[in-house]
Design brief:
By secondary structure, the protein is α+β, with helices and mostly antiparallel strands. It has three domains: 234 residues, PPM-type phosphatase domain (Phosphatase 2c, domain 1); 70 residues, Alpha-Beta Plaits (2-Layer Sandwich), CATH 3.30.70; 62 residues, 2-Layer Sandwich (Trypsin Inhibitor V, Chain A), CATH 3.30.10.20. The protein has eleven helices and 19 strands. The protein is flat.
Length: 448
């Protein structure tokens, strides 16, 4: 039997105004959630998700096995967060990542949705147990970029999967056999986006006590810039009482510089000489202003022509040149990629305009979006003329569903598909329905 020592810490960071992260320590359950959405909706989403996950686990202890318990807890939370998002305009489009660890006996079950992460430190070696559901991870998997390049990629914050955006969610669940001395880390991307795995490993090795390690990790992310909310949960498998996390942060000293004001000197020459000097100063100042304005205009024009971004136009993924604010962008290329077929989290980001990048990187982003749309959509096969059983099998094999309408056709064999909507060759999202008109057997049905 193992004893667990744990500590959690969450910090707003140096840039964000509010903290949309949430953390959870409850018995054998630990979690981190990173919320998203305007007007503090992300804060609501992350807090709600972890509350629901904790309640589900508590209510189903001993009734559902570890792996299923984790999967069902996250899926149940997703349904509730999605319903909350649809209940009010202020919560629309809110969602949250979640990574959690549930210990059952000598096994740790890890669930994950999004780009928050769970790590395992064993014998001084750090191993990532979760896979990010993010655009840059997809680029890494396809060999387009390296792990190091992903840390600075302009679209590194785009996730492909999150709780609350769709009524159903796929949950990644892995299991690990626990060994004495194991240390687990759960963290939001406010840590992992600022500190690389080597830095995280070094902190955990040098600070074996969870409360000390949690503080050191957050401080390291703050020192690296603190560009996002930072949340960590450190779980140590050892014989020790649970350490109460300290949320006291170090005071940050602010230093200001005093500007010395130079008093103007009174001229000692004649009135004419002073007048000429004033005119000269005005001419120089005016010339300087003209030069600066010209330079600024040139810089803006240069940046405008070198800046590209990807967004949605009439339902299609579109490449724009220029600045993404104030509708200053100019359409460069409209693709055939339909934004309807992108994962919900990605679709929302594209509809809201992706971050600016170079033309080369923007073209790579478009290629990635095309692959994602193809992954989550299929071409409707031809099933007209087939028997209903065969037609259903053909549709299900590509991820579509059949919606059957029985019609009467005395001259056609029963159970034959005589029409389908949409027509063959149409692209639909995975899980969509295809309407089939099927000749009924026996007494006549309604004529269509």
């Amino acid at each position: 039997m193992y004893d667990i020592a744990s500590s959690s810490l969450t910090d707003t960071g140096k840039v964000r105004e509010i903290n949309e992260d949430s953390v959870l320590e409850a018995g054998n359950l630990f979690a981190v959630a990173d919320g998203m959405g305007g007007h503090q909706a992300g804060e609501v989403a992350s807090d709600l998700a972890l509350s629901l996950i904790g309640q589900y686990v508590e209510d189903n202890l001993g009734l559902v096995g570890g792996e299923k318990l984790v999967e069902k807890a996250v899926s149940s939370a997703n349904v509730s967060v999605h319903q909350k998002a649809r209940s009010s305009a202020k919560y629309r489009s809110m969602g949250t990542t979640v990574t959690l660890l549930y210990r059952e006996g000598d096994t740790a079950y890890i669930g994950n949705v999004g780009d928050s992460r769970t790590y395992l430190l064993r014998a001084g070696s750090l191993r990532r147990l979760t896979r990010d559901h993010s655009l840059v991870q997809a680029l890494i998997d396809e060999g387009e970029i390296t792990e190091e390049q992903a840390r600075y990629h302009p679209q590194r914050n785009i996730i492909l999967r999150a709780l609350g955006l769709e009524p159903q969610i796929d949950v990644d669940v892995v299991s690990v056999k626990i060994e004495p001395g194991d240390e687990f880390l759960l963290a939001s991307d406010g840590l992992t986006g600022m500190v690389d795995d080597a830095g995280i490993a070094r902190v955990l090795v040098e600070n074996p006590e969870p409360v000390v390690a949690a503080r050191a990790l957050v401080d390291l992310a703050l020192a690296a810039g603190g560009n996002d909310n930072i949340s960590v949960v450190v779980v140590s498998i050892k014989e020790s009482a649970t350490v109460v996390p300290s949320h006291a942060g170090p005071d940050e000293a602010k230093q200001g510089a005093e500007l010395a004001a130079e008093k103007p000197q009174d001229g000692l020459g004649r009135r004419g000489r002073n007048e000429r000097r004033r005119k000269t100063r005005w001419v120089i100042a005016a010339a300087l202003i003209v030069v600066l304005l010209g330079a600024a205009t040139g810089v803006v024009a240069y940046l405008y022509n070198k800046t590209y971004y990807v967004a949605e136009r009439n339902g299609k993924v579109t490449l724009f040149k220029g600045f993404p604010f104030w509708d200053l962008g100019m359409v460069v290329r409209k693709t055939d990629t339909d934004t309807r077929f992108l994962p919900a989290a990605l679709r929302q980001r594209v509809e809201g305009k992706l971050d600016p990048e170079s033309r080369h990187d923007a073209e790579k982003t478009i290629a990635m979006l095309e692959r994602q749309a193809a992954k989550y959509s299929v071409i409707v096969p031809r099933v007209e003329g087939k028997k209903l059983k065969q037609a259903k099998a053909a549709l299900e094999s590509v991820g579509l569903k059949a919606k059957v309408e029985l019609v009467s056709r005395p001259t056609i064999a029963a159970n034959t598909v005589i029409d389908q909507d949409p027509v063959p060759g149409t692209r639909l999202g995975v899980g969509s329905e295809v309407k089939l008109k099927v000749v009924m057997a026996g007494s006549p049905a309604k004529e269509v």
